[in-house]
Known about the structure:
The chain is mainly beta. The chain has a domain at about 5-40. The chain contains no helices and three strands. A hairpin with a 5-residue loop joins β1 (about 5-10) and β2. The relative contact order is 0.22. Bound molecules: zinc ion. Zinc ion binds next to loops.
Amino acid sequence: MPIYEYQCSDCGDAFEKLIRFSDPNQDTPGCPTCQSNNTHKKLSAIAAIHIGNQSGAASSSCGTSGPFR
Ligand SMILES: [Zn+2]
């Protein structure tokens, strides 16, 4: 399980959070210092963020040619 670094925008405190792959909603954990949710992930060691974040390739990825069944 990877450990991501987060930084709080309110108090500026940086902390580490262990993220499980089964918890995609654990994107923005609260700040352990001031309990604020105004935190953001630091882009220190995340190189794969540019790969899965390309816009324009989302509509043609599904190969279904019929209506929903
Ligand atoms: Zn904080």
